[in-house]
Amino acid sequence: MALVRRRGTIQSETFARKRRKKLIFAGILFLVAIASVCTTVYFFFNTQFVQIKLVEVSGPVGINGGVLSLVPADAVQADIEKDLAGNWLLHLVSKNTLFFYPKNKIRAELMKKYPAIAAIDFGSSGGFLGFGNNIVLRLLITERSPFALACAKDSISNFLQSCFYIDSSGFVYAPAAQFSPGVYVDYEISPQSASSSSAATPGKFIADETSFNAAKQIVGFVSGMGLDVSADSIGSDALGPTNTVIINVASSTASAASTTLLTEIYFNQNEPLDTELRYFSEFWRNQQATTTPPKFQYVDMRYGKDIVYKVYK
What we know:
The chain is of the alpha+beta class.
């Protein structure tokens, strides 16, 4: 019996040694495979064949010949080149590799730093099928288009400290040229509801979407009546959210010289806007149909059909 047990022990030890050798061999093969993969990845993604060598930044060719007017192309290019420096994945993959460059990070950082950017499209060229020794990363930047102004002022009728362009969504994005007041309508937050500076901060919206869309509807309707709208102030008072539209009204003097009077029109956003606008249209056209149309200092539409107004003397 003892001899049988000894034979079994010898066989067990032999089996265990063979198993350890197999495990060691398998481990060595696994490490060699990992090393081979890492080496292949490193050399492939760090060769000239797939690396970006040049960055080009431009605008749409059909707009100003592709030259950006609000976004500094040289500064954008320098920002991108900084993002392309360094490596990914434990230093195995270069960040300037065409397959793995940080596209989303570049887009997010540029649009945050340069509010005038509306969209960024990425492309590449160079080499066979886009790969080779001269790979160029091309950024096509679309700039925002001016829809109106956001101007900082001390009160509704006190123009103008500084003005910024806003797009059709109410996003403030760039300082406006000096000629712009009078060319574009000025949208602002009234000092009663917020600080004047908050209405003209690049990278922010002038107001929430609902309030701004209501303001655009009012301005569009009043302008469609043939009136010269210069500004719209978004605010609130005891009656709730309000819009104050300022229009320019020509006033002839005895010397035939023409001066400009300002008429303020108050709308209450708590009321059905279409109804308020219809009431205003009927009121204004009836007044202008009189023999001597009055020059209004203000027209208050916040009380429904009970329209309150004051005329210039």
